[in-house]
Design a protein that fits this description.
Elements (H helix, E strand, L loop, with lengths): L1 E6 L4 H10 L5 E6 L12 H20 L4 E5 L3 E3 L4 H7 L5 E7 L2 E12 L2 H20 L5 H11 L4 E3 L4 E2 L13 E3 L15 H15 L5 H6 L1
Helix pairs in contact: 2-4, 4-5
Length: 225
């Protein structure tokens, strides 16, 4: 199964965590956004550029892999087990499977998305990109995920959520003991006065909080081992 994601040089350490923790034999396609030289917050220009590039890559993946299932993910994932069997089960009879955004919120998070490459998903993704471009022209800080969820509810796609084994902290605390992949979302959308931490710092902190909750060594402890 092919997996597609994007990264910038500023997130090289996140890339290494992503690859070193992966336990599936995915055919990984990583696109480096070399012109992004800053660690931006969510909805900053750098973030919007990376999301638009990822959505275009998703559309290309659909066009080039008709009849197959592909994964399109964020880079900030920490794997704890093999995920492909779960993906295949979640995609039975579906065009798309997505991560649940939060406990009690029945909307999608785009951080871990499986797509069945067919004409239905091709049209959906093409329309999504066109509408996202229009939104950004009116509001440079428009949130692609809000539009994505609106379109899901309007569409005839056969879609559903992955189980809680695809986890982020907005699902509740502590993390499930059987989690397979942790998505380090939940970074502030802008700098907080007096807080000098970057989005990269926040993600490392989130990784370590989950590792500690599971009784596992932190990233720094693993490096020292």
């Amino acid at each position: 199964m092919k997996l597609f994601t994007v990264y910038s040089p500023t997130f090289e350490v996140i890339k290494q965590i992503f690859l070193s923790s992966m336990q599936d034999d995915y055919d990984v396609h990583m696109t480096c956004l070399e012109d992004i030289q800053e660690v931006g917050f969510i909805l900053d220009a750098a973030h919007q550029q990376s999301m638009m590039t990822r959505h275009r890559i998703a559309l290309d993946a659909i066009n080039q892999n008709m009849g197959e299932i592909v994964l399109v993910t964020d880079l900030d994932l920490l794997f704890f087990g093999k995920t492909q069997p779960m993906v295949e089960e979640a995609m039975q009879g579906r065009d798309m499977a997505v991560q649940l955004n939060g406990s009690g919120l029945m909307d999608a998070c785009l951080g871990f998305t499986a797509i069945r490459c067919n004409e239905v998903t091709r049209v959906f993704w093409e329309t999504f990109i066109d509408r996202y471009i229009d939104q950004l022209q009116d509001n440079p800080r428009a949130f692609d995920q809000d539009l994505f969820n609106t379109m899901l509810q309007e569409s005839d796609l056969r879609w559903g959520f992955f189980p809680s084994q695809v986890y982020h902290t907005q699902h509740g605390w502590p993390p499930p003991e059987d989690l397979l992949v942790y998505h380090a979302t939940g970074v502030p959308i802008s700098a907080v006065e007096g807080d000098t931490r970057t989005p990269l710092d926040h993600k490392i902190m989130l990784y370590n909080s989950v590792l500690k909750a599971l009784g596992m060594p932190t990233l720094e402890e693993n490096l020292r081992a």
